[in-house]
Amino acid sequence: MHLPSLTPLPTLRPLSLQVQQEPSAETTEGTTISINCSHPNIKSNEFILWYRQLPGRGPTFLLSAHKGSKELRDPPGWLRVAADGRSSALWLARPRRGDVAVYYCALHLFPVEFWQLKVLPPFRHC
């Protein structure tokens, strides 16, 4: 069974292109695939964030990393960041039809988990 293309999109940061991805990637159901992202001008304090956008839905955060490898639970796979930080690859271990989506990466100063764990006090207008 052949899966339709998994389509990564480039992500822009104001005024300059910071990440680049191939326009599409294909695999067959159950066959591991790598979706690559190039970020040659990454700064030492930036994190690499990966998102997935299923057809007809908004993007959802998958995971973030600064270096090394990190496991991805849903869909099963992992993220590998090159030693120099200038590229990363999102590997989907056993993709299924339900994993067909737009996958894209972005750079940010903090990992998304930072906001998920931080509780802000209510805003008061004085």
TrEMBL record:
Domain Ig-like stretches: 4-105
GO cellular component: T cell receptor complex
GO molecular function, one term: peptide antigen binding
Record carries keyword Mitochondrion: no
InterPro entries assigned: Ig-like_dom, Ig-like_dom_sf, Ig-like_fold, Ig_V-set, TCR_variable_domain
Domain of life, per lineage: Eukaryota
Keywords for this protein: Adaptive immunity, Immunity, Immunoglobulin domain, Receptor, Signal, T cell receptor
Biological-process GO terms, alphabetical: adaptive immune response
PROSITE patterns: IG_LIKE
Name listed for the protein in its UniProt record: Ig-like domain-containing protein
Organism of provenance: Calidris pygmaea
